[in-house]
From TrEMBL:
Signal peptide range in chain numbering: none
GO terms of molecular function: transferase activity
Residue ranges occupied by any Glycosyltransferase 2-like domain in the UniProt entry: 9-164
Protein name stated in the entry: Glycosyltransferase family 2 protein
Keywords: Transferase
Superkingdom per UniProt: Bacteria
Length: 237
């Protein structure tokens, strides 16, 4: 890692016009560089980002969270960034925790650093249904890999260039966080969690609702199991 690494925040955004403007202003005031990937929004997200002076990629159609984030990773890798941070555009993630999040990468202790709200269990803890799903995926990942990840669905994550290259080339499409964790661990990547506080979303709607949460559980579980069963002949990190 160079002494002054280039750090990019990747903000996937779908119909986040209510929250993303103040967020971008706050990030700029803290000296953080952000790229918004506008995932085919039908509201004023693009206009709000442009007014805030943000770097912006607008996708011609909605690709979902996986496609939007992968677009950001492709951009970060192609433009020579050393660290890429996934950061939600709905106001849940808090920029003051960015230094703590990237410290394991800077010190060489981790390839992927995850901001977890369940280490110190402070701040917004999500809904009861989401917490049940998080505990389920945490147990599944521990069963498969032997490593405990307390907040496997956290979208507040930082990666070094090795993982950036991997995610730029291949990234899960739907609800990618738990599946990508298993993939990193299978290839020998080091994952560290750091305690963070999160807030309730400022506006917009979560993509995981009602019956869609059942689809989420089934699809991601199958994807994790398939990835874990793949031969380890893939190139290690």
């Amino acid at each position: 890692m160079p002494p002054n690494p280039k750090v990019l925040l990747i903000i996937p955004a779908f119909n986040e016009s209510e929250s993303i403007g103040p967020l971008l202003i706050a990030l700029r005031e803290q000296g953080l560089t952000a790229l918004v990937v506008n995932d085919g929004s039908t509201d004023e997200t693009a206009e709000v980002c442009a007014a805030a002076g943000a770097d912006l990629i607008t996708l011609p159609c909605n690709l979902g969270i996986g496609g939007a984030v992968q677009t950001g990773y492709k951009y970060a890798y192609a433009h020579g960034y050393d660290i890429a941070i996934q950061f939600d555009g709905d106001g849940q993630h808090r920029a003051e925790f960015v230094p703590a999040l990237i410290e394991p990468l800077l010190s060489g202790r981790a390839d992927l650093s995850i901001g977890s709200r369940y280490i110190e269990k402070e701040g917004f803890q999500s809904t009861l249904l989401r917490r049940a799903g998080i505990r389920y995926f945490s147990g599944l990942i521990r069963l498969i890999s032997g490593q405990t990840v307390t907040d496997p669905t956290s979208g507040f994550r930082a990666v070094n260039r090795s993982i950036m290259a991997m995610f730029a080339a291949q990234y899960p499409t739907d609800y990618p966080e738990p599946e990508s964790i298993v993939h990193v661990l299978r290839l020998g990547g080091r994952i560290v969690e750091v305690p963070v506080l999160m807030s309730e979303r400022v506006g917009g709607r979560s993509s995981i609702r009602s019956l869609r949460s059942v689809y989420y559980m089934i699809k991601v579980s199958l994807a994790i199991l398939i990835d874990a069963l793949r031969r380890s002949g893939a190139k290690s990190l």
